[in-house]
Write a structure and sequence with these properties.
It is globular and about 45 Å long. 37% of the residues lie in helices and 19% in strands. Belongs to the class I-like SAM-binding methyltransferase superfamily. TrmB family. Keywords: Methyltransferase, S-adenosyl-L-methionine, Transferase, tRNA processing.
Length: 228
């Protein structure tokens, strides 16, 4: 094994091989050139990309994009950038954007760590949101969890002073780890007080999965931290 392979970063995701539906494929082919962003293009100029200034919101791991599109509809003055590694989810997001007449979302289909490093300027974002990242339930897989101190340091650099880091999970043990990591991070303060989880903000849509979980008594934990 080479030194490069030994020190290769442990990824927080595994690329699934699921095929896109015909609708997702069509939406991707017809709309990627309009709303897609390419990591290889380098630093992103938000104002040029969106054709206007506006609050800059980055969502990492938007899944099928349902809540991201809902947030974009509810906040038309915000400029949203979503990052998702799974192409079917990107296709579904683009399909929903067409259905809802949304034009204030742009999307990367790429590794979020690399997009942050190469495309997003320091102190440029008003909000970073990560909702229901893979909890990697088994203890031996906890090292794959996205919310680790090094990654949070990277996120913090990208936020403006006063910017918001908003996390949410439905896995209590992961929520507790998130709280520990964010509490220990330099430059962040808990908006609800030390070690306090936040009520779900009105601007985070309630997903069907989450609503079903609530009916069954399952918990959801939101964390809102502010950059000092």
């Amino acid at each position: 094994m080479s030194e490069t392979e030994k020190h290769r970063r442990i990824r927080s995701y595994v690329l699934r091989t699921g095929r896109m539906t015909p609708g997702q494929e069509r939406a991707y082919e017809e709309n990627w050139s309009r709303w897609g962003l390419v990591h290889a293009d380098g630093p992103l100029d938000f104002d040029t990309c969106f054709g206007r200034p506006g609050p800059k919101v980055l969502e990492i791991g938007f899944g099928m994009g349902q809540s991201l599109v809902e947030m974009a509809v509810a906040a038309p003055d915000n400029n949203f950038v979503g990052i998702e590694v799974h192409k079917p989810g990107v296709g579904r997001l683009l399909h929903s954007m067409v259905d809802e007449g949304v034009n204030n979302v742009r999307v990367y289909c790429h590794d979020a760590v690399e997009v942050l490093r190469d495309c997003i300027a320091d102190e440029s974002l008003d909000t970073v949101q990560i909702f229901f990242p893979d909890p990697w339930h088994k203890k031996r897989h906890h090292k794959r969890r996205l919310i680790q101190s090094e990654f949070v340091t990277q996120l913090t650099r990208k936020l403006k002073s006063g910017g918001i880091l908003h996390l949410a999970t439905d896995w209590q043990q992961y929520a507790e780890q998130m709280m520990d990591v964010l509490t220990a991070a330099e430059g962040l303060s808990n908006s609800d007080g030390p070690e306090q989880f936040s009520p779900r903000p009105d601007d985070r849509p309630l997903t069907k999965f989450e609503a079903r979980g609530e009916r069954l008594g399952h918990g959801v934990w939101d964390l809102l931290f502010v950059k000092d």
